[in-house]
Amino acid sequence: MRALILPSLLLLTGCTHMADDRWHGQDKAQHFIGSAMLAAAGNEYAQRQGVSADRSAAIGVMFSLSLGASKELWDSRPAGSGWSWKDFAWDVAGATTGYTVWQLAH
Predict the structure, then answer these.
(1) How many domains are there within the chain?
(2) Mutual angle of helices 53-75 and 26-48, in 10-degree steps
(3) Which range marks the domain in which residue 61 is found?
(4) At a CB cut-off of 8 Å and minimum separation 6, what does 57 contact?
(5) Is the pLDDT of residue 13 over 70?
(6) Separation in Å, CA 52 to CA 9, 15, 60, 64
(7) Domain for residue 2, yes or no?
(8) Which long-range contacts (CB under 8 A, 24 or more apart) does 71-76 make?
(9) Given CA atoms 10, 40, 77, 84 in this order, what sign does their dihedral have?
(10) I want to staple 90 with a disulfide (CB 3.0 to 4.6 A). Which of 2, 31, 54, 76 is the partner?
């Protein structure tokens, strides 16, 4: 895990530009709902593959967050809208909510 921290930080500092966006809006709701659905789906899929409950929860949340980070990395290219920490914060909130709702349903 520690081996991934430095490369991740170096990768994020290479963003060509940052987004100048607000905390609210349709885009943020899409990040939240999409991340919640991806976390729940990843959790369910992992558990159906015979993975333990704890491990499937981690897989679901990390699946969701990795796609959110990939989307922000795509946005940070020169032709994109820019990296948005606000979008990523909504991704994190959505992923944790999706995990929680999935757990409550089981």
Answers:
(1) 1
(2) 140
(3) 24-105
(4) 43, 99, 103
(5) no
(6) 30, 36, 12, 18
(7) no
(8) 73/11, 73/15, 75/19, 76/15, 76/16, 76/17, 76/18
(9) negative
(10) 31
Looking at residue 18, what is its pLDDT? Answer: 78
Helices (H), 13-84: 26-48, 53-75
pLDDT tens for residues 22-75?
Answer: 899 888 999 999 999 999 999 999 999 999 989 999 999 999 999 999 999 999
Residue at 84 is within a domain:
yes
CA 62 to chain CA centroid, Å, is 7
Average pLDDT over residues 8-31: 76
Instruction: Confirm whether pTM is higher than 0.85.
Output: no
83 forms beta bridges with: 18
Cα–Cα distance, 59 to 67 (Å, whole number): 12
Radius of gyration of the chain (CA): 15
Maximum C-alpha span of the chain: 44
